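Run D-alanyl-D-alanine carboxypeptidase-like core domain-containing protein through structure prediction, thanks.
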Amino acid sequence: MGSSPEAPSPSPSATLARQFSLDDPTSQWVIVNKHRPLKPADYVPADLVRPAVAISAAGEAALLNSTTAAAAEAMFAAAGRDGVAMVLASGYRSYTTQVTTYNGYVAARGQADADTASARPGHSEHQTGWAFDIGDGGGACSFQPCFADQPAATWAKANANRFGFVVRYPWMLHPITGYYYEPWHLRYVGVEAATDMLNRGIGTLEEYFGLEAAPGYP
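Sure, done. The structure for D-alanyl-D-alanine carboxypeptidase-like core domain-containing protein is below.
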């Protein structure tokens, strides 16, 4: 039975959502947040590589999964052609490392405040290999709110979609994402989805894929 002209067409997000799993950590659309832990919790990507970009991170933090690494190489090169020095400041983070990172925040700030700044182990996008933090070539404002005004951040906000990336934790959307603005945290979702989100003015993956907000842990 053919659809009538009046029948609403599916939204782009609904159409795209059928392409990749939102649950499989090997999927570029896996959604990891405070309501959606990684399964398994100690997941390790099988294809971690060191991208050929400027890197300030060391050890495992210099690694990304192979798809993200290739996209990052293309994006960093394009930024460089525009005169913007972009640096990989933090990539893959294992479950064990996240335990240490999170516990450090808890010790310094208390658990309630730590949960706004650091993911609990098994709930971090960094563990998937699909996400990384960028720095500016000059090293200014690393992991601070003022980074939003640095050339690397402004360039990424305007251009990252062309390479398949979104700013995962946008300004003022922490009631949905569970995290305050992180202009340095980029997440690979593919060019099609990233561009569709930008064109439609959708700021979070939760909204884009029709998932519930995840401001806090259940």
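The chain has eight helices and six strands.
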